[in-house]
Amino acid sequence: MIVVHQAVDYLNPGQICVFAVDQPLYALAKTVQWKWPDTHGEDKFVIMLGGLHIRMALSNLCGDLLKCSGWTTALSDYDVASSGTADSFLKVCCLTRTRHTHQVTA
After folding, report:
1. What whole-number distance in Å separates Cα of residue 86 and Cα of residue 104?
2. Measuring CA to CA, which residue among 15, 23, 25, 24 is closest to residue 45?
3. What is the chain's alpha carbon radius of gyration, rounded to the nearest angstrom?
4. Annotated domain spans of the chain
5. pTM score of the predicted model
């Protein structure tokens, strides 16, 4: 964080550094900010959760909204996906393991 701060300060003096990191590094960076607020505080660094985890949270929210909508039945009735696969779309516990179906044409 110090090296990045020095590089940013050299190119744009006084600019606050912005980090976009995945969840494990986010937790570590926030811990550093809380432990050393004088040198790494929120007035010097902005730590953002990376895009992958934001997408997973959004997908999880969509899954919660679709849970009782008949999603699984509709996809399995029209042979888009099996009921187990359609149900797995609603539970985005690991985005890389979530299966994508083929494009359905009318």
Report:
1. 14
2. 15
3. 21
4. 2-49, 53-97
5. 0.54
Instruction: Give the per-residue pLDDT at 30.
Output: 94
4-31 burial, b at 16+ Cβ within 10 Å, e below that, comes to ebeebeeeeeeeebeeebeeeebeebbe
pLDDT digits (tens, 9 = 90+) for 55-93: 777 878 888 888 888 888 888 888 888 878 877 777 765
Q: Which residues make beta-bridge pairs with 88? A: none
Distances (CA, A) of 62 to 45, 84, 90: 31, 17, 7
Question: Which residue from 95, 96, 74, 76 is spatially nearest to 85, judged by alpha carbons?
Answer: 76
Cα four-point dihedral sign 7, 46, 93, 61: negative
CA-to-CA distance for 63 and 58, rounded, in angstroms? Answer: 9
